What does this fold into?
Amino acid sequence: MISFVLVSGLVLAGCRPVAESWRNPPAAPPASPAAVGTLRTEQPALPAQATPTVVAGPVTITYWEDESDEGAVVLDELAARFMEENPGIEVKRLHFGTEDLRLQYRVAALEGKPPELVRGAGELAGPFGELETVRPIEGLIPQSTLDRFFPGALAAARVKGRLWGVPDNYGNQLMLIYNKKWVKETPPTTDSWVAQLKTLTDVAQGQYGLVYDLKEPFWLIPWLGGFGGWPLDESGMPALATEPMANTLQFLQDLKLVHKVVPPDVNYDSAYEIFRSGKAAYVIDGAWNLDRYRGAGVDLGVAALPRVTSTGLFPSPLTLGKYWFISKVAQGPTLDAAVKFVEFMTSSGAQETWTSRAGRLPSNKEAARSEVITQDPIKSGSVDQLSKGRGLQSVPEMYCAWGAMRAPLASVMDGTMTPTAASQAMQDEAERCIADMNVADPGQEAKETPEGGQ
It folds into this structure.
């Protein structure tokens, strides 16, 4: 099973299982990558950009990225269109492997020779922001532009109270996937949803309303947000011994032990098999797995998790994205060009291109209203949930909070620990982890987030 949700360099149309612990950068940097030329192929149709900045050319800006081959084609097409509209600016791209991108940028920043821009996973905001090797976005990109993003999409790039990056791709959220044979309409609230789940459950026949991975914290997080909590508080410290966490655990335990709408023991793989076989009406799974479900012979529907009745809040699943970071090396006309390029690459038009060409979902609210999404029930249901998601803070404390949730969650689902006791046990373990981390490695530079995902 997965040990953590964040995945460096994740292709948002799919995931890979990875599990790593905290690690220190090796003493020697990886080999430098080869330069990648810009492909000038068919141009994507984009709306005119409203950026008023006029850059006095010629200016050359370079960005580093860790995209897939498919995504690199889209990056080059968009860059070609940008250069066509801005003939005084030349854009160069360098491709790295995911780990090489992180390590090589660190070396380049320490030597004072980083590129003007980096495009990578949101988790890079942690080390970039802690070391302040990139520029805060506030003051560079107007607030009116930032307001066009889903609020949760910017959360992953906030460190130390500052925003360090903006995303052009967004996704990998958990959501409701349902079998239209059993479900004609998805209820709006948890109370009405649980009532429906009961009608869809026949334990004697092995038929259940819902399946999902019962003991993995990744599936707990959306409900924690719906009950008004989050693993870390505003200061970035674990907030697990809370009423929202206790209520979340009670809700999940009740689904199994009181309402009996989920099987006694379900993990990630068995949840898929039960749903595929038609023995479950709903499964909670991620956007990365949609192609697998499409091939399962089930008439699929996709919807957002229902609003929590007691709080009026929507569940907020964790999300991942690809973010643009502006290096401190960019100054004067080069900085102006870098900002203009980032605004272009994260615009609604660019994000619509990502959706139509590569199936990537947008972080931009305007792009989410495009026909390529609204006319596709699966995409529109997925984006509805995505709009309620939240990026994960890429700080070491989250590692401790994440690990601390697993064992108590399992005990709650087995009925051997009360939700209140479990929430306190989570907090105690998270605090011990942070204390041990600080003692073992005092004053060390910020570490990157451990990888993982489905």
Remarks:
- DSSP finds 16 helices and 13 strands in the chain.
- The radius of gyration is 22 Å.
- The first strand starts at residue 35 and ends at 36.
